[in-house]
# Entry
Amino acid sequence: MKHAALLAAAASQAPRMRAELAALVEQESFSQDLPALHACADLVAELGAQALKSAPRRLELGGRPHLLWPGSGTGDVLVLGHFDTVWPTGTLAGWPFTVDGDRASGPGVFDMKAGLVQMFAALRLLPSAQGVAVLLTSDEELGAPSSRELIEDTARGCRAVLVPEPSAAGALKTARKGIGAYRLHVRGRAAHAGLEPERGINATVEVAHQVLRIAALGDATAGTSVTPTVLSGGSSMNTVPEQALVQVDVRAWTAAELERVDAVLRTLKPVAADAGLELDGGVNRYALESSHSAHLFASAAQEAQALGLAPLRRAAVGGGSDGNVTAGLGVPTLDGLGAVGDHAHAPGEYADVSAMPQRAALLAALMGRLLGTG
# Structure
């Protein structure tokens, strides 16, 4: 299909896209609500079956539903997304789906239900979905604890992964920081704080020393942040604390930086004699480095120009997605191909419905180019 015809065909789907968006947002899908996720999976499977003309494989891992439309094998283009949201069930009652002018608002509309609608529209625009695999998961917002292996197994051997996660103010996401998540447990010794504090080993004091060491591992020049976050310790006001815990969030642009911080965290030693340290966790998602996306972004930019769209922009962002997982395998990955809008995970989250047909056409054109059918 020529670019002008592709854009016109996408525009003709605008009413259908709005209706599908309303249906998806009105079916809540909080990551922690398994019945809601199963109900949303039913709806997503129905919409996907219409677009791909086949039912998905429904895979339940840890009680969670994930939907897979397998491709034809090695060399597939994988479209990767998720249908869970961060919004607790019941949010919709106080914040219903609405469209005001070009803005559609509601829980999960931007991250990433509008992206799913655009993806389905793009698939309908293709003359054939042969060579396209689609994987939609229900635990992306939790860090993919049940779907990671499925994502990796599906992505291996693919020529490219396209991720219709939200854009960054319209820009495609060509780099994402990698993420490390850790818990440092500190073991001390309890004693009465008034009668014999000298017999104790104060885990709170020990964890304070460790927090300062951990925070110093960040490197602003390299864009690496190491942030002690949740802190807990002690059992009562008059007891020398026996236990303490600090959780640590690590973000970095490169695998080398993630591994540097990881190595140092694993060599931490206690300051107090006889105190104990135990670290668990590790690198959760490696970085989506710009080298993973450069060729795909160049192709997308050429397709946008051929469609007569505004020049594409690129952005590097601190948040992670399942695209980090596929990039970590070395599979070329382009993210942020979803909705234009703003305020993900925040009140007032919205998607620009006027941009949805254009972005669907762009995704279809890019898939067609990669498949050799464009």
Remarks:
- DSSP finds eleven helices and 16 strands in the chain.
